[in-house]
TrEMBL record:
Repeat (TPR) residue spans along the chain: 83-116
Keywords, comma-separated and alphabetical: TPR repeat
Pfam families the UniProt entry points to: TPR_12
KW Oxidoreductase (keyword) present: no
InterPro entries tied to this protein: TPR-like_helical_dom_sf (IPR011990), TPR_rpt (IPR019734)
Protein name (database record): Tetratricopeptide repeat protein
Cell membrane found in the keyword field: no
Amino acid sequence: MEAGFQIEMTRVYVEMADYNHALELIDELDRREDLLDHQRIELLVQRTECLIQTKKYEVANGLLVHMLNKQLAQQTIDDQTFCDLFNKLGTAHFFLRDFEKAFSAYEQAYRISQKLHEYGLISAKVSYNLGITCNQLGYKDDATRYLEKAYLFFDSISDMNRVAQTLFELAIASGNPSQLVQARSLFESLNMVHQANRVKQHYAFHIQSRQDYKKAVDELYMVATEFEQIGDVGMSVYTYSRATMVCLEYDDLEQASECLNEATLREQKMANKENYPLAYYFRARSKYFLCNEQYENCILDSRKSAEIYGIMGMDYESADSLQLAAEAFRRKGDYQEAFEVSQKSYDRIKKLSRGNQV
């Protein structure tokens, strides 16, 4: 069978999200000796997409790094493919929770996208991905700038799924509650339950908790239950931890204890100990211990949280967690240790200034 037709079939499989059949056909094609160089590159693009979609991020990362190192030495592919490969590398790093490496890859993809003849789908995807990575790293102004560009394009082609996703990320970057409301409405109309729950969680924690914290906690409980029902135990842990923080903000230690117990029960059920929810869980637990004058436990969990955030390149979050340990040392009267921990926290925050120079 003609190679060109089979390669087109791999694209169809990928578009249909039939990644296993796509990979089988790609493996078969890779054994052919009559493929042209550009066809092998096309197969690599399709293979890495399949690997990312099937959560084989390490394998995808290895293939992409090898190919991109060769292309950086002697570029033999067009800018659009080059941009797409860097975008995929960023996505592999993003899902491996290495946000600094993701930022670097997406930034390179963005630079290449600036050389393309028009701002099309690949450029918008890169802008969106760079924006959400800036959100994770705390570069909110840059996140807003990139996300607004992506939003305008997705809206122009009526891609409502991506419009909703981008609105939500814009709300995270800007704190605009109307964007949260719009995003939730779109997610619900598209029957995207997981994403709608993320919006409800964000709204309850950041907006509703300022108006009526008890109602916010009730809402967070409902969202945590929904996450658990759809199989996302990690997000359930994260949401109960959010509820814990709301209670602590209002000195409701009894309710905070109940929320934290719910988070701990789910944390023990987690099959995969995902970094992101665990980092926040340890922070919530650290703050709970601080409020209950259990300073050694506070310091221990504060450092666990800071370490996990640090591994992900989330320096602002890492610094925020370290401040709990610094406060525990101050309350213990250990001012030298408090100063040293605060200095570490400050050093991590200083790294964020790079985000404003993108």
